[in-house]
Amino acid sequence: MERRGVPRPGATTLGLGLALLAGVLATGCDGSGTPADGSGRPGATSRSVSASATSDAELCATIVAHWSRKVLDSGTYGDYQSMGLSNGQYEILRDVVDAARAAKRRQGAEAADELIDRRARAACAERYRAGTPSGGPWR
Question: Strand, helix or coil at 2?
Answer without folding.
Answer: strand
